[in-house]
Please model this.
Amino acid sequence: MVLTLERPSQEMHPEPRVAMSRVIEPAAVVDHVSKVFIQRPLFRRGKTKEVHAVNDVSFEVRRNEIFGILGANGSGKSTLIRMLSTLLIPDSGRVEVFGYDVRRDEAEVKRLINRVSVEASFFKKLSPGENLAYALRLYGLSGPTARDETYAVLERLGITRDKVGEPLEQLSRGMQQKVAIARALLTSPVLLLLDEPTTGLDPRSKLDVQRFVRELREGHDATILLCTHDMAEAAALCDRVAILDKGRLVALESVDGLQRRYAGEIGVAEPTLEEIFIHLTGRSLEDDEGGNE
Amino acid sequence: MNQSLRPVANPLPGAGLWWETRASLAFVERNLYLVRRYWHLELAFLIFNVASAMSVLYIGEAQMQASGGGTQEGQLDLVLYLGIGTVVWAYLRAVFANVGEMVAWERWEGTIEYTMMAPISRLAHMLGVSLFSIIYGLARSALLLGVLALFFSVDLSNANLGGAALILLVGSVSFLGFGIMAAVLPLLFPERGEEMTFVISSILLLVSGVYYPISVLPDWMEPLAMISPATYVLEGMRAALLEGTPTLALGPSLLPILILGALTLPIGIAIFGWGERYAKRTGRLKRSG
Model:
């Protein structure tokens, strides 16, 4: 099945999503951002542990770009996504979405973003239809039109009417993740934050999700920030990738650029992203850095 | 096959008062869906509440029979006294629990980050949860009252029903304030906050004179009764329903409830705001469990 994402119709979207005055580059700015988590033992017995989840990281995401953040578990990817989602306040540095500061302009940022995380955040006893009705109401959308669109989008994602009323816990993880994608899609984010959206999915569902991501960018003028530790996925989708290691940014370039830059050092004409990652960090993606993501 | 996916609408134009009020209905609708999906649990809790309430009322009836039977002139109608306590507490507890557990519940479901990330103000979030908790509390209490009325005959011929409703309405506000304060606990203590909320409601039950006058409490407990809005709600309800006290004469109960409501609601909202910022600074919003 080939799916395409059309631009919103004029009557449904009478105003552009980002006002013309705010059509600015870049879509997101992360400027010298740091985040430390302090783990204090109960009743202050034992040592206090400090985890530098993100350590002086800077990058910019261009408008309409698919930007990948690669790193092992605990490298700080999810911490970055949470800061961009207004769910975490940076200790230092500046985080902006289309010129809006995530601390100062939290409400404006929230209207521009949506996030699909590794765990599909749903009320598991509720059906896809009920979960989406809740999400749409939160975004100020309700009524028969929204309901019809919900059914249509779910159906096009392969979730048939008979599944729409079933509790989400009875659907496969791949189906649940597609519902999460549908939820993000229905609220038309200008910046979509994808936090390992394909982890744990079967190969077919993985390809479906990857196709949705491309179509979302092409059909919606959306900017996509993708956190992943799937190197093949990053290579297939991303215009540029940032590699994080222990909370630090160790590389930021297009996949081709990284291959050219490190081919000589690695001694392979066209190194894979995985080989580049191991060369730069000295670890494989399966290694757990034990941080607080 | 070439099909298209279109977004439904553009959320950016929102952010007005009317938009926020409409968006707050998301919480009412969602919780009604959840009640429907968890109907077996709701039914089990209702049966438990009814059985508990009937047990308490039968204790009252036995006590009245032991002291001569029937309600004589000037004698307290113990069954009605206890009945008011059980039904009013069922309502206040439902309001408190639904608001107090708004974070704990979503943390357990794994949706807290999604809700906190949505483009809706925290005030609208609380409005929606509070609205549902009042609807839910009223429905549960009405069902409980209906069942109790089948088994116990109560005389409400002299009752001031309007005054009782006013007391309950005003009392709800201060209970919402307490609930919002309690809701912050799971944000501050992700692993223990929910238990703390449960402890608070248990203490309110103990000190507020639900089944007995607060004068029987030890001296050291009585100050706790003074700061519990349930104490004044129950006093006012009993005055209105048992003694038929006119609304204008309900001032001694209404005034403390109004003062507590005026204090607890804004303080609760401020504490929640502080708790949310703290959770976002320390990373405690993240799902656990």
In short: The radius of gyration of chain B is 21 Å. Confidence is low (pLDDT under 50) at residues 1-13 of chain B.
